[in-house]
Amino acid sequence: MRTITVALDAMGGDFGPHVTVPAAVQALSIFPELNIILVGDESVLIPHLSSLGFYPNDRIYIEHTDKVIADTDKPSSIMRRSAGTSMRRAIDLVEDHTAQACVSGGNTGALMGLSRYRLKLLPNIERPALVSTLPTRSGQKVWLLDLGANVSVDANTLFQFAVMGTALAEEHLHRTPRVAILNVGTEEIKGNELVKQCSELLQQVQTINYIGFIEAHQLLHDEADVVVCDGFVGNVCLKASEGVANLFLEKLKQHMLSSKLRAWISKILFSELFSDLKQLNPDQYNGASLLGLRGIVIKSHGSADKTAIINAIIEAVHEVKRQVPSRISDRLETVSLERQN
Amino acid sequence: MRTITVALDAMGGDFGPHVTVPAAVQALSIFPELNIILVGDESVLIPHLSSLGFYPNDRIYIEHTDKVIADTDKPSSIMRRSAGTSMRRAIDLVEDHTAQACVSGGNTGALMGLSRYRLKLLPNIERPALVSTLPTRSGQKVWLLDLGANVSVDANTLFQFAVMGTALAEEHLHRTPRVAILNVGTEEIKGNELVKQCSELLQQVQTINYIGFIEAHQLLHDEADVVVCDGFVGNVCLKASEGVANLFLEKLKQHMLSSKLRAWISKILFSELFSDLKQLNPDQYNGASLLGLRGIVIKSHGSADKTAIINAIIEAVHEVKRQVPSRISDRLETVSLERQN
User: Fold this and answer.
1) Which ipTM score applies to this complex?
2) Is residue B280 over pLDDT 70?
């Protein structure tokens, strides 16, 4: 069994070591082949580890750094002052092949900038994209990208997102994924120049299974496997979905627990309902991948709890096993060859 | 009591007269001062009316047209072939002051183009915007615009949306509404050029209560009263919210009704839950206004049922009573004066 090493930015996210350390410990019990490097301040991390009865060992060890990148740091200053931060060091561990993937819940802009600067983009890629899956009505998944790595893109970049999404999704699906562009209508005349131009590009290639435009309310209806959009639209789409899902769960709980009788009956008769509805909450699907790089970088929600961080680590392990960057590279080459002919 | 006349495009929407005629009849019973002109094919409309025991009279009458605008019609051909269609005639009735507002569930692009062409824009307005309210967590409303009238806009147009949204919302709220720009983050450095430039413009005026950026998951959290974005983003935001809300309701029903016992208990204990959750479904909030015109035009969902069309007619009546176009005009003038000084 080949060892998989994941570098975890233990200081990143809203709750830092309070959730990253317990998540790391638990993730080790899921994958016997997994090693984790906790990157951060050892004077903080060791007490957290020892409170769980753990000490640095062969499978979980600490890479000491004494600085962190703040959420408020400007992109311009991050590059200059990134040396010695936990996020930068976690990425560097992937760059020098000490780790095969890194996970961070820190500043998205910083993670993207530093990953791009340190790991470099794959050939034929202009911009990395943030991708995650949303749960669909039938219990399947839909891959949505970009979720916010790029607030504006051109048609060619959106086309590349379709190729990258295809490479990622086909590994899960074991078939060629159906790719759609998120738009304000499904008719060809609908939308802005970006989606119209990208649609034309996608119609010209056979190696991508492009099925046309999709509207946001169809996203969870199993009509497409991969949905592409610019990062502004994708971010709004994901967060609007999370907002409504959370509000529904909140209202449901209020009602169910509004009387003792209701609470008691809910517990007996509707316990599975809660877990089913929670599954629908996109917020639970933690671990967005930064695609298009020569290494694996997983972005965890800033507000991620222990379970969510474990999910992000699981995603990192899966991507290492599936060799996502080289699969994307292969796909890009195939499409590039088709476009040249 | 002053009479209010609403022209209803009785042929528009997915279900046409099957829902528009019963909705019109019921709306008359809500507002004693309301008259409705059903615009469409009288050979179709009269049987629908008579099946409900109604005949054209002083309060509900038919304006005969024998053509309709199809959803698939291209914007370029709509202007040319709009004469004699139910939508065009409904708008013309507003233009010649026979009606004070019109309601249509037809092709959004056509409705916008024809309204703009026939009714003209207010002074200081470059583009009309589609606005609707979403239900918030506390049971209040948030006004979101644009919902798809413009797939791309500049910062000045987005600024005008903020002014129009303020004029509409302050009438409901009886206070100065808090205005925010929808963005991918709340920090000033976040977002694309459009939102950054518009934010600068809004910071320069005192007559708009601009509170900064808002993220899509905060939309229903009562943090802002008016939220502005371009029509592409707004459309995706609204439809993503609808998609998740509908999926939750569907799953909830499946669980509640999965056994006779559960169905029976749900009916007794959780009946109010359904209506409460349905209230959260943005889909129920029918009747988006086309703002920025010299007349009142309400866009109904294409898939609207009878209740939804009644809601659209109610919105039309409210806007007539509140004299929305002249209020917007006043607001625009105040802001324009402030910017000149």
Assistant:
1) 0.90
2) no
